[in-house]
Fold:
Amino acid sequence: MLGDKRGQIRVLEVFFAVLVVFSALLLTRPIYVAFDDYGDRDALYSIGLNVLVQLDQEGELGQLINQRNWTEISSKLSILLPLGVSYNFTVYDEESRIINSSPVSSGNLNGKSVVSIQYLIVDRRDFSFYTVRLQLAWMK
Amino acid sequence: MSTVSIDTLLASFVMVCLVLSSMIGVFTAVQPLIKYQPSSYETAMNRILAEYILIEAGSPANWGIETNRTLASFGLAEENATVPFDLDIDKVTRLNERNRYNLSFLEAFTAFGAKDKPFRITIKPLFNVTVTLASQIEKPSEITYRFNISTDRLKMPVSTRLQCYGVIGNYVTTNSSTTSTLGDGTTEISLPKSLNGTALLLVFAEMKPRILSYAVYPFTHNSESSPNQVGTYATLSPINYTLRVDLASSSDRVLNAKSFTYNYWFNLSEVEGTSTVQRFLIPRILDESPMIIVCTGLNSSSLEYFAEWVSYPQIPVDFGVNFTGRYNLADAFSSRFLVTINSAIYECEILVGGT
Structure:
């Protein structure tokens, strides 16, 4: 058997095929994880947008931003968001500069699947224009 | 047998094992993905259906007050609403089974138009208020009651401002208080000894403007009997800013009707009265608060005051199919929304099921 090279080649082919198939299996795992995560992110986006819409009713959010009342915004977000959701709230002006002097956040977003929601706000008193970014993640 | 044949046989055997094991492996890895794809589509569709209920006004668009017309399309949004998730007070009220004009689930389900999508709608305040009677002190002309009040959101204490009303007969007393960061607070009210029967303590708790909850605590004042249960003397059905009172007995009539919000209270004027039905007009108060309507009258046999109450919008609401019962096997998808009814914010959960 040792003298016949054709048999050895076939065995090598088999082991090479084993290597290819199992590496392909390993590659499919991240795709599955990504799909599994999609539902959570979609729900989180829906929750975040709903909260921003409620906060913005009657121009309340625009007024709070204009007053730079970050404590009140943080307090309202904590009430309106479901328990178990971490958030980070950032406000940008017309030139995309961050205007909240202190972080408006709760919990830690590091190492989590974070969903970002962009929302446009206009303060009805002086027509100041802001872009709000709300980042959300489940506390897991 | 030659060595070449043995090598070929061995290689073929390993190859067959490899193909089989790879088939099993690929199936195991891919099966959840294949299963997830239709479920992902179904999840997205269920969320869109839930949003549809809260964004669409239905048909006729004012079906909340058009109680005699057949519902063609189901939706809870206010007619001509300018912001999303702004719900109509009467449409929400008609979901409550205690209201005389309530909508049956079959009507709503048929009008919804998705035959394979039963649903359940729950609307409630964002936090809970619990009241207990702590003590009572009798004085020569009045009795002072002390109540413990706790406020919590999913068992987590919340700090609130309280507005309390004590009601018996035509007598109303008010008091303000707060609950601490531990969610605990107290309030005291005094009622005159010249009155007796069922009294009510109404508690409105405000966390932030537009975020309110309430509790109603019935108790006996200056009497041996226990407070009357809701619905004993009359059934109250608010709709289209009119209160319909269906009396249990023609001898026990409602003498006083009042509406309360966080900041205001008003007497209601009677517009129609027969032996079994009375109607009162409800003022359109712009207060960002739920409204509690209290009706009081005298029991013709005991000559003690009775008290009936209802909230407007008539919430909490729990409408639709039960998906979480012991014998329910259908899958269901739950969506949580914040909704506005008369400028106050409530929590709404919609379960859409199927399969």
Summary: The two ends of chain A are 58 Å apart (CA to CA).
